[in-house]
Design brief:
It comes from Candidatus Burkholderia verschuerenii. This protein is of the alpha+beta class. It has helices at residues 2-18, 20-28, 32-48, 51-91, 110-116, 137-146, 192-214, 236-241, 246-250, 264-277, 321-335, 345-358, 372-379, 381-398, 423-438, 466-482, 493-505, and strands at residues 95-99, 105-108, 151-158, 164-175, 181-190, 217-223, 232-233, 281-289, 293-306, 309-319, 362-369, 404-409, 412-418, 441-443, 446-448, 452-459, 488-490. It has a five-stranded antiparallel sheet with strand order 2-1-5-4-3, sandwiched between helices. It has a five-stranded antiparallel sheet with strand order 7-6-10-9-8, with helices on both faces. A five-stranded mixed sheet has the order 12-13-11-16-17, with helices on both faces. The termini are far apart.
Length: 506
């Protein structure tokens, strides 16, 4: 036994030496197991067959090892490719699928199965994928891929759960060995949320446009530095400014050409104030329209704050013409005497307050129509109103520029003459007023002649507050009455003593 084993090992060594080129070829394949198997096999075969035949068998064995090795490498590459593709499909957020030439699903990613809401991938394999889509876009894009063109489309289809989803899909042709398209790779991304957001934005835009088109208010947006003054302006601009919106594209400042020059500084100041303070502001301004028409506009200006800073400014402009007319009417009712059109007591008081605060000298005159009650008693209140209106107009005409005249009530008139007055200037002003009142006034079929008594108080000599001036001028007027009427008196020492006595008695 030992001899035979020794002979076998010796024969195996001799065989290895003779077949060394073939063995080295197998070893270079880095497959030690195959090489060892080949050596053993060739050694055994060489014991029973002639050398030429064993050489041929050795060459065949080597070739077989090469084929086996190539097959194993191919299987490893296929396995690695499968692992790689499986990994890529697992991390992809899109629905990836392979379609055959009829549009049926060959395979699909797990993410795709989840997005389509199928229970398992097998439920999707073999189905007509193109039939799931609404509209012809999917078929048209698929046909382009079959023709060798990569393409894409967007559309909607229902999932297995019945939900309608929107997708954007890309097709890529897959080529076979002879350059023919053998399949189509499709990648679909779920854009349902994006479509819903776009629809919401479009809906909001439609609502905003409908509101802007049917509301007589101008909405505009500007950058915070006002370099881009009109980022957006609504269609009501054309109705309010009476100029086309297209004019703003040609000249962004054309809107300002309609704003009254006296109002523009305040408007720009309010706009800058909203940006600098971050607090809404409001401004009234006038538009100078064709045919010398004027329209009042109220602008409410709001700063838009983002990340702690004003990013832009939005404003709402409304027609304030009626509002200003109502305010003017209220102001008239509050400050204008309805009978004569002169200032009333409130307006005169406000005017005197302002001048007293400024410290500028002035003369305050209290004019009382003599024996006016007899006109009312003999000719009636209508005749009395006629007399009052005539006297008001005549006094207004007799006063110098800058004078203020008011009718506080009844048959009294008050006058403010700005500036410093000496006795001569006071006398000259009072005589003009007295002459204006004394001219005949036509009442009905006859003329009547009136006279007046005037009391004068000077600021600051006879009073430093409106109340003090009123009292001083009233006492001076009664002094003129006592002097025989149709004359004037300046508040003096006697009136001062009378006032002191009255104050003591009070």
């Amino acid at each position: 036994m030992q001899g035979r084993a020794s002979d076998f090992l010796g024969h195996m060594s001799d065989t290895v030496a003779k077949r060394l080129p073939y063995i080295e070829w197998a070893v270079r394949l880095d497959r030690f197991g195959l090489a060892f198997f080949a050596v053993v096999t060739m050694a055994i075969v060489s014991l029973f067959v002639p050398q030429p035949i064993s050489n041929m068998l050795a060459m065949g064995a080597a070739a077989a090892m090469v084929f086996i090795h190539q097959g194993q490498q191919a299987r490893r590459r296929i396995f690695a490719a499968n692992q790689l593709s499986h990994g890529l499909l697992s991390i992809a957020e899109d629905c990836i699928k392979l379609l055959d030439l009829q549009g049926r699903i060959i395979c699909v990613s797990e993410v795709g199965r989840s997005l389509i809401e199928a229970k398992c991938i097998d439920d999707l394999v073999g189905i007509e994928w193109l039939d799931l889509w609404e509209g012809p876009d999917a078929r048209a894009a698929f046909d382009q891929a079959l023709a060798g063109q990569s393409t894409q489309f967007s559309g909607s289809c229902r999932t297995f759960g019945g939900a309608l989803k929107w997708w954007t899909s890309s097709f890529a042709p897959v080529y076979g060995e002879h350059g023919k398209v053998t399949a189509v790779l499709c990648k679909s991304r779920d854009i349902t949320a994006e479509v819903a957001l776009i629809d919401e934005l479009r809906g909001n835009a439609r609502v905003q446009k409908d509101m802007e088109d049917h509301v007589d208010a101008v909405f505009w947006t500007a950058s915070a530095d006002f370099r881009e003054l009109l980022l957006h302006v609504s269609s009501a601009f054309e109705r309010m400014w009476e100029m086309p919106v297209s004019a703003l594209k040609e000249d962004e400042t054309s809107w300002a050409q309609r704003v009254h020059s006296e109002d523009m500084p305040e408007l720009r100041g309010k706009m800058r104030s909203a940006v600098n303070s971050g607090v809404p502001s409001q401004s009234y301004f006038r538009l100078a329209l064709p045919d010398e028409r004027t329209r009042w506009v109220r602008a409410d200006i709001y700063p838009v704050i983002e990340n702690g800073a004003v990013s832009r400014v939005v404003s709402v402009c409304v027609d304030a013409t009626e509002e200003r007319m109502r305010l003017a009417e209220l102001h008239k009712l509050a400050n204008i005497d309805s009978l004569t059109g002169l200032h009333n007591r409130n307006a005169m008081t406000e005017a005197i307050v302002q001048r007293c605060e400024s410290g500028e000298p002035l003369a305050y005159l209290f004019v009382d129509i003599d024996r006016f009650k007899s006109i009312n008693d003999s000719a009636g209140h209508t005749a009395g109103d006629t007399v009052l209106k005539a006297i008001a107009e005549r006094i207004r005409a007799a006063l110098p520029k800058g004078a203020i005249i008011a009718r506080p009530g009844g048959d009294d008139f008050t006058i403010v003459l700005p500036g410093a007055f000496d006795q001569e200037r006071i006398e000259r002003a009072c005589r003009r007023i007295a002459l204006a009142c004394h001219r005949p006034i036509k009442v009905g079929c006859k003329n009547v002649t009136m006279s007046c008594s005037i009391g004068v108080a000077l600021f600051p000599e006879h009073g430093r507050t409106p109340e003090e001036l009123f009292i001083s001028a009233d006492m001076a007027m009664y002094a003129a009455k006592r002097a025989g009427r149709n004359t004037f008196r300046v508040f003096g020492e006697r009136e001062k003593d009378d006032l002191a006595r009255i104050q003591l008695e009070a």
